[in-house]
Design brief:
This protein is globular. By secondary structure, the chain is mostly beta strands.
C-alpha cells in the first residue's frame, strides 16, 4: 500500500526532568516522572525503541519521546490513539479511532514525516465511547486491536443492547486482526469497552473489558478466533448468526465464552486496562510469568496467576499495588532492566495523568504468590515460608463463593453468596504452601479468599492477603 505523505511542522520540546521517589512497602519504589506543564501526558500507548527511548502516544493525538530525562515531540495531529507498537528507531504503529497507522521518521531528524494508512476498514461515529484500543503484533507480523461499543443514555434502536453496531458502523465490540499486507480480519466478537489487549509469552491473545451491559465487572479473557466473548452487540456483524438480535438468552449462553478471571467491581478495580506479562525473569520480583492488569479509575495494579484446566484458562486475581500510583493506570511496559513503566490517563474516569515507574529493590514481599486449583480445593503458594502452626488454624481463612449474573443491565453485583469452610488444611514441608480441602467445588463461581494473621517465619506481616479465583472448570 503506498504511503500517505502528510506535510507537518513538528515542534521539539527539550526539558529537564526531575523525579520524586515514594516507597511502597519494603519491596518496590514508585518514581514519578516530572512532566512539563505544557505537555498533557494522557497516555494512550507506549513502548520502547531498541535504543532505550520510551515512545508514548496521548489521547490528545501527540506522540512523545522520553530519554535521558528529556521529552521531545515526535508527532501530533492524530485522532485519540489508544495503542502503540514500536519498531526500529524512528518507526511506530498507532491505533487511532479510525485507522491503523504506521508513523516514521524518514529523514532522520527525530520527527515524524511519513504517515501510512495501514487499514481503515471499520466503522465509527462521533459517539465518545467508540474507542479503538491496541496494539500487539504476533510472530507472523499481524497486528491486533479492539473496538469499543458506543454508549447511549437510554439505549439506541435496539433498546440498549445493540450499542452502536448499526449496519454501516461495522465491527464495534470486536477484536480485529490486521495481516502484514494490511488486510483486516474480524477475529472475535463480544466486547464492550476493551481497554487492553496483550500477547502472552506463548503468543496467545488476551483482552480485558469493562463493566456495563452483559459485562458484570472487569475481566481478563483468552481469545481464540471465532470466540463469542459475551456482549451480543458485536454478533450483528458475525455472518454465522444472520439474525443474532432474535437469539434467546439460552442460545447466547450456549456460545458465550466465560472470562478466564473476573475482577470484582470496586474491590479489584472499576475500569480495567492493559494486561502485561512479567517476562523479566525475576528482575521485577518473585512474580515472573504472572500477569499485571491496570485500572484507570482507581489507579490500581492487580496480579493474575493463570492455569489451564481442561484446555481453557482460569485463575486468581490478587492485589499488587493499590494505593501508591495516584492516577489512572492505563498502559504498562517493562524496560530491559526489569523496571515497570506506568502510563497514566485521567480524563473521564480518574484524576491523574502522567508517567511513573516501579522498581523492585530486591526485598521479597510476604504475599500470596499464587492460588491454584486442586481436586479437593485450592493450594495457596506464598513468597516466603509461613508460620505453620498459624497456617493450620481454620479460623484465619475467610472463604465464600458467589455468582455474577450475565444480563443486559449495567454490571452485576455478587449473588448467591455462600460461605465455605475448609474441612482439612495441609502445610507443605517447606512451609511455603497451604492446601485448603473443601466440602465440594462448584463451577461457574468466583471464590473469594481472605487470610487473617499469617506472618512469615521471619515475622513479616502478610501484605497481600486477598484473592479471587474464577472457577470455570474442575480438575
Amino acid at each position: 500500500m503506498p504511503a500517505i505523505q502528510r506535510i507537518v511542522l513538528l515542534l521539539t520540546c527539550v526539558v529537564g526532568v526531575s523525579t520524586a521517589k515514594l516507597a511502597t512497602g519494603q519491596s518496590y519504589a514508585v518514581e514519578t516522572i516530572k512532566v512539563p506543564a505544557d505537555i498533557r501526558l494522557e497516555v494512550g500507548g507506549m513502548a520502547f525503541w531498541p535504543d532505550g527511548t520510551l515512545v508514548l502516544c496521548t489521547r490528545r493525538g501527540e506522540v512523545w519521546k522520553y530519554k535521558d530525562g528529556q521529552f521531545r515531540q515526535f508527532a501530533f495531529g492524530l485522532h485519540e490513539p489508544l495503542g502503540l507498537y514500536a519498531g526500529k528507531v524512528g518507526e511506530i504503529w498507532v491505533m487511532q479511532r479510525g485507522e491503523l497507522t504506521r508513523v516514521t521518521d524518514e529523514d532522520g531528524d527525530g520527527e515524524a514525516d511519513n504517515f501510512e494508512a495501514i487499514n481503515q476498514q471499520w466503522g465509527y461515529t462521533g459517539n465518545y465511547h467508540q474507542y479503538a484500543f491496541g496494539l500487539v503484533r504476533d510472530s507472523e507480523g499481524s497486528f491486533y486491536g479492539t473496538l469499543g461499543l458506543g454508549f447511549y443514555q437510554g439505549g439506541d434502536r435496539f433498546k440498549g443492547t445493540w450499542l452502536g453496531t448499526q449496519d454501516d458502523i461495522k465491527y464495534r465490540g470486536w477484536v480485529l486482526k490486521f495481516t502484514p499486507d494490511g488486510k483486516r480480519v474480524p477475529f472475535a466478537a463480544g466486547l464492550r469497552a476493551p481497554n487492553g489487549i496483550a500477547l502472552s509469552p506463548k503468543g496467545e491473545i488476551f483482552t480485558t473489558d469493562n463493566q456495563g451491559s452483559y459485562i458484570a465487572c472487569g475481566w481478563l479473557m483468552h481469545v481464540r478466533q471465532g470466540d463469542f466473548i459475551g456482549h451480543p452487540s458485536g454478533l450483528i456483524d458475525d455472518p454465522r448468526y444472520p439474525e443474532s438480535w432474535k437469539m434467546t438468552r439460552e442460545q447466547l449462553l450456549k456460545i458465550r465464552k466465560r472470562p478466564a478471571v473476573f475482577l470484582p467491581h470496586g474491590t479489584m478495580g472499576n475500569s480495567t486496562s492493559q494486561p502485561l506479562w512479567d517476562t523479566t525473569d525475576g528482575l521485577f520480583g518473585p512474580f515472573a510469568g504472572q500477569t499485571f492488569v491496570g485500572d484507570v479509575q482507581n489507579g490500581k495494579l492487580t496480579r493474575i496467576c493463570l492455569e489451564k484446566i481442561n484446555g481453557e484458562y482460569q485463575g486468581a486475581a490478587i492485589p499488587f499495588i493499590y494505593d501508591k500510583l495516584g492516577g489512572g493506570v492505563n498502559r504498562l511496559v517493562f524496560d530491559k532492566k526489569g523496571t515497570l513503566w506506568v502510563g497514566l490517563t485521567g480524563r473521564g474516569w480518574a484524576a491523574g495523568e502522567g508517567l511513573k515507574k516501579l522498581t523492585y529493590n530486591g526485598n521479597i514481599p510476604h504475599a500470596i504468590h499464587s492460588m491454584s486449583l486442586t481436586k479437593t480445593g485450592f493450594r495457596l503458594n506464598f513468597t516466603k515460608p509461613i508460620n505453620a502452626d498459624q497456617a493450620r488454624d481454620p479460623a484465619i481463612y475467610s472463604l465464600r463463593h458467589f455468582e455474577l449474573e450475565w444480563h443486559a443491565a449495567y454490571g452485576a453485583p455478587p449473588s448467591k453468596s455462600t460461605v465455605v469452610k475448609p474441612i482439612a488444611i495441609d502445610v507443605s514441608s517447606d512451609n511455603r504452601s497451604v492446601t485448603l480441602h473443601l466440602p465440594k467445588l462448584e463451577t461457574e463461581k468466583i471464590y473469594e479468599l481472605h487470610i487473617g494473621n499469617l506472618p512469615s517465619t521471619d515475622g513479616e506481616k502478610l501484605q497481600q492477603s486477598m484473592a479471587f479465583y474464577t472457577l470455570n472448570s474442575r480438575l
